[in-house]
């Protein structure tokens, strides 16, 4: 089995003041020219699920009300998976190069979650014009912008 070493570049900060990415000092030069991008792809670590038990989970009870009763973790956004990696797209609201603070709209990460990498969202590389999804989630919003008004509470089993 191959082993990889991954080093965080910062942390997610979530609280009453909103959601931020706090980039470590040594990585702040990498923020140069990020200005002007409206969204980021954020690769982060589900640190709360980085344990032997969570990494062994391959199937989970469906977190979605209209989906099959049991699903493979690769068909879900479950934090329990062989490698607890998460990928989220978020709106970039403000960038403070000097202090390494990136204010974002929202991602489903807990305060303190390690940030592994950032990539600018570019429609030519990240957007798929006609993605297909299973029937059980075909009624979900077609964009991040539409998701804010969607009643997600009716979709999940938790």
From TrEMBL:
<comment type="similarity">
    <text>Belongs to the tRNA methyltransferase O family.</text>
</comment>
<protein>
    <submittedName>
        <fullName>tRNA-Thr(GGU) m(6)t(6)A37 methyltransferase TsaA</fullName>
    </submittedName>
</protein>
<dbReference type="GO" id="GO:0008168">
    <property type="term" value="F:methyltransferase activity"/>
</dbReference>
<dbReference type="InterPro" id="IPR023368">
    <property type="entry name" value="UPF0066_cons_site"/>
</dbReference>
<dbReference type="Pfam" id="PF01980">
    <property type="entry name" value="TrmO_N"/>
</dbReference>
<keyword id="KW-0949">S-adenosyl-L-methionine</keyword>
<dbReference type="GO" id="GO:0032259">
    <property type="term" value="P:methylation"/>
</dbReference>
<dbReference type="InterPro" id="IPR036414">
    <property type="entry name" value="YaeB_N_sf"/>
</dbReference>
<dbReference type="InterPro" id="IPR023370">
    <property type="entry name" value="TrmO-like_N"/>
</dbReference>
<keyword id="KW-0808">Transferase</keyword>
<dbReference type="InterPro" id="IPR040372">
    <property type="entry name" value="YaeB-like"/>
</dbReference>
<keyword id="KW-0489">Methyltransferase</keyword>
<dbReference type="InterPro" id="IPR036413">
    <property type="entry name" value="YaeB-like_sf"/>
</dbReference>
<feature type="domain" description="TsaA-like">
    <location>
        <begin position="6"/>
        <end position="130"/>
    </location>
</feature>
